[in-house]
Specification:
The chain has 118 residues and is mainly alpha-helical. The protein contains five helices and no strands. Helices cover 78% and strands 0% of the residues. The termini are far apart.
Length: 118
């Protein structure tokens, strides 16, 4: 394993850890809301669906599934738009920037450089 592959592996593991922490946060939010009956059923369902999607994406990233990279971007955008909040947005943007790093893109079989037509 060369240095670029090791870097990609570390970055992907970092993203997966952050995604699983976010999933745990969603589950705590859903459990506390269900206990207090504070969220409407619709909000609870959205929270649980987003948590399940984030967990599936994290597992897909760990297994280097090609579908997991664009799905991760979709889940991050949905998280930022649906849930909102400045800190959440900053974390989501940070994860997105990590996913766009050339070694990470290469790990998922995505092009790492744009071609320039001259």
């Amino acid at each position: 394993m060369d240095a670029r592959e090791q870097l990609a592996d570390r970055l992907v593991r970092l993203v997966v850890i952050v995604l699983f922490i976010k999933v745990a946060g969603f589950l705590v939010l859903a459990a506390s809301a269900a206990a207090r009956d504070a969220l409407a059923t619709r909000g609870l369902v959205v929270t649980l669906v987003l948590a399940a999607a984030m967990a599936a994406v994290a597992v897909g990233l760990l297994q280097t599934r090609r579908w997991a990279w664009p799905a991760a971007l979709f889940v991050l955008i949905a998280d930022a738009v649906i849930i909102g909040g400045l800190l959440r947005l900053l974390i989501d943007v940070g994860i997105g920037l990590v996913l766009f790093q050339p070694p990470v893109r290469a790990r998922f079989g995505l092009p790492t450089q744009r071609r320039r037509d001259r």
